[in-house]
């Protein structure tokens, strides 16, 4: 792995200044609010055993002030902070004698051979040092990808937990009218714990571990991973007073299509500069070549590539998708549609990058509605399940003539032996409406399992959902995994993994996907079946990835992993040689995006739970789904079954 530091020339002439001056950050529509100070740990975050907040999370007034100042984006703060850093020797400033201070060029430095993205300390502000990471070895790429995934999983787990605590307070008529911002609270707690990434250096170019097409449901998460460090502004840049020679450098922008003078052509963007708008987003005065505008112009002058994140409307909010690197090739001062002068920047996407995530997102939307119109050839079946699932399962193969999935009977849920239903309790809850505190099923789980949107709060050894013996309605929030396939899926032929499965829409972290189905066999039946050469899945071999979802020990020092409800070792197999469902075509990975969660709902025999699949991260559409089967073929790295 290599890194290169960047500086800027001293003597550069900017563009002509417009006659009027107005300085204001370019905000995005429906922007996130500034992060609040980290709140105290809500009581009862461990459902198994009451705990107390970690002593490391006690917040003094000084902590709150620092957090507040960190998110107050103003030149006064930047100036004061820079002077403090330079005074204490914490900021790296190239002197005029430094040979690399006059241009943005790579240079070797034996003392600076890499970056440390992990939050090894609590940073009061971002570094003034610009770094470009190059020549990552495969093991380095895997390391950073895993680091990004774990950080994002922690953020999502913490956000879901914070939202559930907010909901409890509202149900108790406390802060009933307060707007819930669990996304900001989760980010504030992670920042307080020193878990934000890429704070010690500002990275130019791609962020190690972040792939083109990665999707983020909350804008503040871009700050957590260091993809776009400005909480509200559309232009992220190194300020002039932190730069080595007093010139700002832009590193990333957010394109949301919410500005009248913006033009987004995909590979070519006409991006409007910042400033001159009132609180309603209307242009009311001329823009000036300063701050983010000047930073974009300087980045164009020095050939610094710009990360582009697109904000795409999704329901009432947005999803933010990383679309890769662009170069600014032109800038000019023009009269905007409102009659005021605006700076415009023409960005062109750098060649030989992966397909843009925003393009894939829009393609998948069309594919869901009109698959044959979007892809006239390649579809073998428009519903592999033959209407046995509530959503059709597409079957696509444009590689060869192998139609093997059509030769197996599709079953939407696992088939258990009759004796399984004859053992165990047949009691259920007596809730007539919403299952809340006091519900018999929730008590067996030790508390709530899902939030109001059906998102799994955290993984458990076993989950009891409400079942046929319960009085609650089918809409009960404790009936998530029993409702069948939750996202439109496609089985496809892959040159890399044989068969694979992908979703046609974005799968949020913690959401249910589908059940892993087959014919359930006892140990004795499995021995006979194996001798006949049939294909078996051994549920006991699945890696216990459920322990990772909702794991908050990095935030709460006395967090304990759930141990209740407990389940005995799984001693049955799934025969998928004749009957199977879409899950049987999911690939194996040691860094999976899905996990297996054991669930009971139609019987209470803990020895025979159902295998329910949940998302461990936000999975963009058309990205292959994967599971950790626990044991894989040594040659292909994929489970030697069904493929």
Salient structural properties:
643 residues; alpha+beta; 11 helices
What does this structure look like?
The chain is α+β, with helices and mostly antiparallel strands and 643 residues long. It has helices at 61-70, 75-88, 138-171, 182-192, 220-225, 291-302, 357-369, 371-374, 418-422, 440-445, 523-531, and strands at residues 2-6, 130-134, 202-203, 215-216, 235-238, 249-255, 263-264, 268-272, 306-314, 317-335, 341-349, 379-381, 393-396, 409-410, 463-464, 489-494, 498-503, 512-515, 519-521, 536-537, 573-575, 579-580, 587-588, 594-600, 610-615, 626-627. The strands form 7 sheets. Strands 4, 5, 6, 7, 8, 9, 10 and 11 form an 8-stranded mixed β-sheet that branches. Strands 12-13-16-17 form a 4-stranded mixed β-sheet, with no helix packed on it. Strand 16 (489-494) and strand 17 (498-503) form a beta hairpin. Helix 3 (138-171) crosses helix 4. The model is unreliable at 4-33, 41-121 and 633-643 (pLDDT under 50).
How far do the termini sit from each other?
Answer: 36 Å
Catalogue the unreliable spans: 4-33, 41-121, 633-643
Major beta sheet, specifics? 8 strands, mixed
Name the assembly state: single chain
Structural class, judged by helices and strands? Answer: alpha+beta
* Tally of contiguous helical segments: 11
Rg for CA atoms: 27 Å
Helix content: 10-25%
Categorize the overall geometry: globular
Strand content: 15-25%
Report the count of strand segments: 26
Mean pLDDT, nearest integer? 80
């Amino acid at each position: 792995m290599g890194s290169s530091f960047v500086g800027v020339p001293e003597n550069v002439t900017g563009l002509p200044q417009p006659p009027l001056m107005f300085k204001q950050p370019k905000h995005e529509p429906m922007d996130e609010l500034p992060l609040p100070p980290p709140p105290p740990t809500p009581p009862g975050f461990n459902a198994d055993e009451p705990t107390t907040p970690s002593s490391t999370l006690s917040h003094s007034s000084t902590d709150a002030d620092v957090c507040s100042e960190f998110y107050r984006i103003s030149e006064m703060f930047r100036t004061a902070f820079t002077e403090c850093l330079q005074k204490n020797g914490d900021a790296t400033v190239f002197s005029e004698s430094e040979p690399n201070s006059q241009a943005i060029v790579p240079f070797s430095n034996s003392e600076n051979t890499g970056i440390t993205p992990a939050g090894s300390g609590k940073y009061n502000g971002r570094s003034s040092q610009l770094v470009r990471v190059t020549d990552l070895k495969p093991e380095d790429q895997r390391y950073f990808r895993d680091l990004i995934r774990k950080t994002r999983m922690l953020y999502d787990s913490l956000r879901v937990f914070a939202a559930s605590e907010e909901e409890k307070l509202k149900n108790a008529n406390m802060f009933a009218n307060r707007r819930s911002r669990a996304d900001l609270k989760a980010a504030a707690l992670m920042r307080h714990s020193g878990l934000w990434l890429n704070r010690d250096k500002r990275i130019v170019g791609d962020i190690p571990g972040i792939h083109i097409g990665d999707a983020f449901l909350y804008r503040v998460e871009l700050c957590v991973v260091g993809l776009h460090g400005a909480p509200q502004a559309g232009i992220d840049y190194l300020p002039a007073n932190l730069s080595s020679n007093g010139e700002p450098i832009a590193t990333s922008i957010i394109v949301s299509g919410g500005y009248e003078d913006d033009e987004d052509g995909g590979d070519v963007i006409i991006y409007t500069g910042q400033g001159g708008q009132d609180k309603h987003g209307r242009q009311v005065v001329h823009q000036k070549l300063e701050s983010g505008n000047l930073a974009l112009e300087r980045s164009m002058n020095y050939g610094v590539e710009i990360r582009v994140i697109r904000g795409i409307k999704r329901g009432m909010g947005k999803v933010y998708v990383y679309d890769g690197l662009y170069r600014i090739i032109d800038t000019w001062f023009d009269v905007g549609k409102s009659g005021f002068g605006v700076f415009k920047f023409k960005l062109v996407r750098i060649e030989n990058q992966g397909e843009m995530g925003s393009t894939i997102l829009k393609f998948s939307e069309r594919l869901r509605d009109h698959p044959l119109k979007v892809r006239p050839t390649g579809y073998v079946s428009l519903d592999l399940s033959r209407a046995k699932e509530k959503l059709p399962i597409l079957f696509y193969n444009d590689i060869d003539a192998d139609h093997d999935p059509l030769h197996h009977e599709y079953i939407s849920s696992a088939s258990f032996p009759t004796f399984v239903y004859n053992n165990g309790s047949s009691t259920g809850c007596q809730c007539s409406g919403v299952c809340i505190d006091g519900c018999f099923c929730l008590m067996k789980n030790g508390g709530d399992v899902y939030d109001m949107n059906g998102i799994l709060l955290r993984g458990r050894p076993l989950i009891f959902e409400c079942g046929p013996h319960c009085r609650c309605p089918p809409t009960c929030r404790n009936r998530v995994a029993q409702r069948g396939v939750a996202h439109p899926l496609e089985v496809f032929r892959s040159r890399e993994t044989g068969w694979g499965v992908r979703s046609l829409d974005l799968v949020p972290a913690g959401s249910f996907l589908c059940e892993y189905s087959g014919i359930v066999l006892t140990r004795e039946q499995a021995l006979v079946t194996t001798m006949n050469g049939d294909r078996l899945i051994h549920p006991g071999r699945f890696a216990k990835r459920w322990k990772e979802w909702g794991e908050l020990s990095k935030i709460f020092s006395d967090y304990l992993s759930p141990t209740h409800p407990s389940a005995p070792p799984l001693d049955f197999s799934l025969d998928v040689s004749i009957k199977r469902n879409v899950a049987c075509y999911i690939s194996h990975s040691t860094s999976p995006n899905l996990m297996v969660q054991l669930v009971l709902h139609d019987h209470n025999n803990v020895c025979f739970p159902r295998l329910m699949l949940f998302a461990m991260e936000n999975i963009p559409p058309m990205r292959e789904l994967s599971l950790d089967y626990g044991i894989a073929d040594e040659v292909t790295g994929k489970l030697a079954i069904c493929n």
